[in-house]
């Protein structure tokens, strides 16, 4: 069975680096909106299964597809095939510090469109792994009222500077700080021993103070909501969206 058989496919076009860019988007559910940005290597069945939990909890969920395969289980082979392409993509950044990933503008546009349709206090934005920090870039826009950062892993945690970097420009970092100070809290979930996340949670704690709700899970693992799914993490995300998105 196609993992997305019960979802409705469409496309969204918005600017990326000055060029109109189109990506497919799958949609399902009703209620307050949530944009779930998939992890490496693509829109896997694990990501779709988590999105189904959000639908069951009463959300309209959008699944944009930015890279990699669609509807397949996580596989190391897919990671090896996808990663080189992602590393040279003009839409994404993997090593540079102090910059916002270019595809953030496309994602903000998608969130604005969903919020304009559904109304309410805003929509949720969740990034994971490779896209973990994208929710921060999206919350620069007021349409996002509930940003969730799950095991953010970009830029790759090589050296102190990259390990601490949030994948945001200085201007966007300041916008995130201001929004958090005004009441738009950020939820972060990760396994505490996961080296891929570097020291980004420490950076967020210092930047946002009480505006950063930090969950460091015990044990070994990386993908908190999918491959090494933690019920504690899933419950925290569901509660965060319920609290922040219900008018």
TrEMBL record:
The molecular function terms in GO held by this entry are: hydrolase activity
Alphabetically list the UniProt keywords: Hydrolase
Q: Which Gene3D superfamilies match?
A: alpha/beta hydrolase (3.40.50.1820)
Highest taxon of the lineage: Bacteria
Domain Dienelactone hydrolase: from-to ranges: 30-152
From the UniProt entry, list the residue stretches annotated as the region Disordered.
1-27
SUPFAM superfamilies noted in UniProt? alpha/beta-Hydrolases
What is the name of the protein in this document?
Dienelactone hydrolase family protein
């Amino acid at each position: 069975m196609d993992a997305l058989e019960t979802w409705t496919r469409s496309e969204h076009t918005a600017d990326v680096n000055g060029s109109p860019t189109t990506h497919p988007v799958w949609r399902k559910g009703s209620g307050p909106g949530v944009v779930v940005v998939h992890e490496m290597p693509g829109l896997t069945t694990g990501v779709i299964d988590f999105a189904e939990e959000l639908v069951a909890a009463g959300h309209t969920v959008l699944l944009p597809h930015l890279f990699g395969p669609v509807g397949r289980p996580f596989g190391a082979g897919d990671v090896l095939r996808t990663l080189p392409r992602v590393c040279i993509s003009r839409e994404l950044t993997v090593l540079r510090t102090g910059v916002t990933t270019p595809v953030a503008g496309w994602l903000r546009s998608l969130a604005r469109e969903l919020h304009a349709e559904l109304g309410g206090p805003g929509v949720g934005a969740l990034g994971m792994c490779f896209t973990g920090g994208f929710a921060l870039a999206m919350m620069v826009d007021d349409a996002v009222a509930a940003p969730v950062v799950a095991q953010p892993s970009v830029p790759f945690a090589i050296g102190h500077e990259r390990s601490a970097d949030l994948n945001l420009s200085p201007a966007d970092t300041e916008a995130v700080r201001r929004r958090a100070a005004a009441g738009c809290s950020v939820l972060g979930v990760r396994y505490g021993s996961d080296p891929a996340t570097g020291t980004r949670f420490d950076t967020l704690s210092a930047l946002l103070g009480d505006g950063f709700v930090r969950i460091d899970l015990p044990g070994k693992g990386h993908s908190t909501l999918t491959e090494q799914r933690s019920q504690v993490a899933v419950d925290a995300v569901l509660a965060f969206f319920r609290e922040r998105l219900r008018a």
